[in-house]
Specification:
Radius of gyration: 28 Å
Structural class: mainly alpha
Number of helices: 21
Shape: flat
Helix content: 40-55%
Number of strands: 11
Largest sheet: 3 strands, antiparallel
Distance between the termini: 78 Å
Strand content: 5-15%
Oligomer: single chain
Strand order of the largest sheet: 9-10-11
Length: 466
Amino acid sequence: MTWPDGRICTPCFVRAVETYGACAWCEDERMLPGRDEHDRPICRICARITTDLDCRRCGAEAELIRRKLCVRCVLREDLEPLLAPNDPPDLRLKRLVNVLCAVDRPASIRTWMRGAAANALLTAIGRRELDLEHAALDALPQSTAVDHLRSLLVARHMLPDRGNEDLARFDRWLDHRLTELAPRPRIASALEPFARWHHARRLHDDADIIRNLNYATRGAKQEITEAGRFLAWLDDTHDVAFIDVDQRLIDEYLADGPSTRKTARNFINWHRSIGTVRVHAGRRRDGLSTPMAKDIERIEQLGRLMRVTDMPLAPRVIGLLMLLYGTPIGRLVQLQRDAVTEAPDGIRIDLGGSQPALVPGPISQLMYEMTTTTAATRTATVDAGWLIPGVRIGRHVHPDSVRERLRAIGITVLAGRNATLADLTQQLHPAVLADVLGIGTPTLTNHALRAGMAFASYPNAPRASR
């Protein structure tokens, strides 16, 4: 394709037709595919570009991708046969078509719906085989297509908000797990009270105060899963019901096999606490993983994150904040935009303490760039206020995706965080540091003592149970 200033390649053409704003010459708000001699964006008329970029149906200036139609009109053409909102007439399906076509980046919806799972999902809805209800979506195998559609429907108030989706997903998982174990009453009868009374009830009661329900539900799943394996071992290997277990079998199970078996301790001790059994499994002592051998390694990783250019900005900033303040990634991804404020002395970030922390200059520049750039992953006109929106509509970026990106460039996440906290607790007293980081004083005191803090501070250390 040739424009007045020469031939233009496909990537540059796509970038040009996706640029909108006020023309530097005529000041009209419209597409700005041209550039003047000062490299300022200008409109087609001022740039004398004669390429046809007007959609024949809606008249919008846009890239024309099929029969002189823009991507938004093409998306509507593709959606209506799938969802059949007029055959028979269904107001909710008409609204769903309008919602999908009104997203900021309709091309992303076209890409999503071309996937086999998403296409099958929309086809089932259009054939009236699948109701737009939580229960109907819950009955389907879990997939990104289902999660994406559910997020969109909730964000646009087409489905009721069930609260935290991690908690709702845990409830579905637990129901499915207990249903699978129903044919084995020896296992199910011992596992269900622990799963529902201890874990599910606690998660629901404390949902508003648990900082990271994703971590909490995953931990609960692991304990329930390991408890089920322990009960299956008793049943299959020794033909013993849990209510008849003796201390010898408890010790044998915990002494042999992989270290994950120790996760069943909580299950055993909980049943002891309510009087089901008299055996015990000891207490799991919370240990701190080994930090980096030298603080210089942490400094090197900070420098690597500052220099890397082939990584998206969001995980870089999260990694820098983790290595700077020792805040877990699971908490950093949940920050709202209003947690970052501009002050006379620079950018400050609220990490959950009583006062915001000052972000050093070089890192604050990257943070400012991130907060002022519209997230490229946003696919619908829904703003949940997250500092770093994720791919799922109305959700923040998933912590696991951030960890994977950081580990891919050699960032040691847990060891780096521990090294950060060990260093910070040598500079500030744990009680003072807790006010800034929003991390419990006992946790910080553990890091301080492990790093060799002065013995005079030992009264703040948490007492180990005897």
